[in-house]
Design brief:
- It holds the Pfam family Mito_carr.
- Belongs to the mitochondrial carrier (TC 2.A.29) family.
- It comes from Phrynosoma platyrhinos (Desert horned lizard).
- It is a multi-pass membrane protein.
- This is Solute carrier family 25 member 53.
- By secondary structure, this protein is mainly alpha-helical.
- It has one domain: Mitochondrial carrier fold (Alpha/alpha barrel), CATH 1.50.40.10.
- It is 75% helix and 0% strand.
- It contains twelve helices and no strands.
- Helix 2 runs antiparallel to helix 12 and helix 6 runs antiparallel to helix 7.
- The longest helix is centred in the N-terminal third of the chain and has 32 residues.
- It is globular.
- The N and C termini lie far apart (45 Å).
- The N terminus and C terminus are likely disordered.
Length: 302
């Protein structure tokens, strides 16, 4: 491919979509062992050592079981998040100011939430142990959603898109904070003379950990809201918040129960994703500055 054609390809709208897909694909592969170990701990209440021994005894063939669904979901998430962010940033101004990056990040989070919300809804119902007998398969859940007789609006609001407003709030805030802060933080770390690959990794880790910690209680509320199925179970937002607060004993600290490992995993995942993304951006000749370019200087008067 000629250099001019390569530059045209790398500057096209499709570039950010495939770079985002590749970043999430490889970071999911890298963190899957941690994900599977944590899942065994949550399922069997075992220690890290016991969970690791279980996985070693099962062998490599069984170790890869369950990899495909999160790999596909995270790859799609990266495609949407990075691709739509770049598209919105271009539409706003393309100057990459702090306000433009934050606005484009919020809009990218909204887009991701609109597409992926039904998948998260089905997953939360499947993971609720109280509904195993009622909804043993994904098909049984979809059959329930499609049975709602109030028309398409009720099937979407009560079924597939239950809790959509909360998801848009979480994804919009998270993406807006991530995209507005990752590049400035990376640039500050670069000034300290760190190895070339380390600033992006640390920037992603710090941002991922901080944002996950901030939004974790909202995630708890979303999980509980989306686990509700049927008109009898469905609570209003205020009632759902009150129910979550009661089950956590009315203590803020208990809202974070079970969140420590998830927050740490999120930090590691976003660190790897950011590092891989920035590497691919630079490798393909599209390393854009994080700050808007300075205005042109007036020519000197002779």
């Amino acid at each position: 491919m000629k250099e001019e054609e390569k530059r045209e390809w790398n500057s096209g709208p499709g570039h950010s979509f495939w770079v985002g897909a590749a970043s999430n694909f490889f970071s999911t592969l890298a963190t899957f062992p941690l994900h599977k170990t944590m899942f065994r701990q949550q399922l069997h209440a075992s220690s890290i050592r016991e969970a690791g021994l279980q996985l070693c005894q099962e062998g490599l063939r069984q170790f890869g079981r369950g990899l495909l669904p999160p790999l596909l979901a995270k790859t799609l998430q990266g495609t949407l998040m990075y691709g739509t962010y770049d598209a919105f940033l271009r539409a706003l101004s393309g100057r990459r100011s702090l306000g433009d990056r934050a606005a484009a990040g919020v809009l990218a989070g909204f887009s991701e939430g609109l597409v992926l919300s039904p998948f998260e809804r089905v997953q939360n119902v499947l993971q609720d142990r109280r509904k195993v007998l009622r909804f043993p398969t994904t098909r049984s859940i979809l059959r329930e959603f499609n049975s709602y007789g109030g028309g398409a609006r009720e099937r979407l609001a009560l079924g597939y898109y239950r809790g959509l407003g909360l998801i848009l709030l979480r994804n919009g805030l998270g993406s807006g904070l991530y995209f507005s802060s990752k590049d400035p933080l990376r640039d500050r770390l670069c000034e300290r003379g760190l190895p070339a690959w380390l600033p992006s990794l640390l920037s992603g880790c710090i941002n991922g950990t901080a944002i996950s910690f901030l939004l974790y209680p909202l995630g708890v509320l979303i999980t509980n809201v989306q686990a509700q199925v049927g008109r009898q179970e469905t609570l209003g937002l205020g009632a759902a918040m009150a129910a979550v607060w009661r089950t956590r004993g009315g203590r803020v600290a208990l809202l974070y129960r079970g969140g420590s490992l998830l927050i740490l995993r999120s930090g590691l995942t976003w660190g790897l994703t950011t590092a891989i993304h920035d590497f691919l951006q630079e490798a393909t000749g599209r390393d854009l500055p994080s700050h808007p370019p300075p205005p042109p200087q007036a020519p000197a008067v002779p």
